[in-house]
Here is the input.
Amino acid sequence: MLRDITLGQYYPGNSVIHRLDPRVKIIGTMVYIVALFVVHTFVGFAISFVALAAVIAVSKVPVKFILRGLKPIFFIILFTFVLNMFMYSGEVLVKIGFLQITKEGLYTAFFMATRLILLIIGSSLLTLATRPMSLTDGIESLLKPFSKIGLPAHELAMMMTIALRFIPTLLEETDKIMKAQQARGADFETGNIFKRAKHLIPILIPLFISAFRIAQDMAMAMEARCYRGGDNRTRMNVMKYSKIDGVACVILALFVGAAILERILI
Amino acid sequence: MSIQARNITHIYSEGLPHESVALFDISFEIDDGEFVGIIGHTGSGKSTLLQHLNGLLKPKSGQIVVGGVDITAGKVSMIDIRRRTGLVFQYPEYQLFEESVAKDVAFGPQNLGLPPEEIESRVEEALQLVGLDYNEFKDKSPFDLSGGEKRKVAIAGVIAMKPEVLILDEPTAGLDPKAHRDILSMIENIHDHEKNITILVTHKMDDVARLADKILVMEDGRLVMNGTPEEIFSQKEALSGMGLSIPEPTELIIDCRECGMDLPADVLTIDQAEEALVAVLAK
Here is the structure.
């Protein structure tokens, strides 16, 4: 059933990672991604892996849950791996027709795949351990300085918030419409791809109409409460840096230091 | 044609942290041609129960037999179940999608694989039954109609499948009083005309009291009462404990009885109340 889909993949919890200020987590994730490109040997990846594993352990998000998030991009990782494996010239290990696997190719393939996997797990941890709403609050707060040069920080964050807010609503709506059409004998499960696409029309048209209706109601409700953008708006939850955020920053700095040292020394 | 439900239990999101028991050990029987009302406040499991009756949801345990066919069995044909039981959802006008009223009503019969002539005659008949003129409405876009008309078209879309069991989930929710009356008399009309089983979920006690042969009362996923309107609405205290009320005429007569007037206890409709009061006042 549609309502069982995990959304925004947030994994509820109350660990230190969950309680960190979202701004620290966003910056931390970005720094981690950059660090993955700074390091250039498997030693660097080992450091990154240990750091990531430690964060996952502290966050108490089950590893199984994280790996499930990797499934959809498994193909991309495989594609990168295979491409790199065949595309490098050097010491030939295996030769199949005009394709050849070189030692350097194999090394790069593993290197790239490791980087990609760490990259994806690292960034998915951000959404796993941060409530979508505090994530958008964090983004808004971080983008605030750019509003001086005309970036609509508040509006962007508001749009993200609304989009996130309506995912479950629209899923519920889809579920309802699908059932109503099934009750009228519609069949979504059989037939070839063209037939199935055609069967989507009785769902998509009512869904679009609903989406517009909901959006209009929402706009009206916001206006009725005098909403007028970000200027001088106060918030219910004011974000404050606490001690754990300081500790997190120190640990992050140590990690960055290790990554840079790896680059220089090895 | 009859319906037997035996010990149905349904659990939403089983195995996940937010699992909830939506239906618990529900059993009831509905005989041929009966008009059944289901009452219970929001979240009591009424809609979940309805979806079981036409195979949209499968119970975790228990058995539902419609017209001798066990629809909870594995190999049963869904299209066959939907031919037997037609389900009109809450706010059914949101399911309209075709460019014309006639095409939209024809969607169900088409899915049943009927020949074109049969479909056309069914569409015409269904629209007449819901009180819309076929020639006037058939080419109109369903999105240009009023709220009440849209709802009638949506109901016609289910009626055109000629179900032996017609289930309506709060068919008058959000309508004005006139549209409310229209829809109800239409349902009554269809019930008289088709002699089908009609199951009506509603929050209007006056409507169920007047129309139903039998009433099922749901609370927290359980079936707590099952009986005739007279039996159900004589339990004012129990009903108000569940956040439900009794029909207004019944309420009035009870108040009068408490004031010492000699009135019968089983008054349900405004006509019966009038009759009883006139009889007493004439003395």
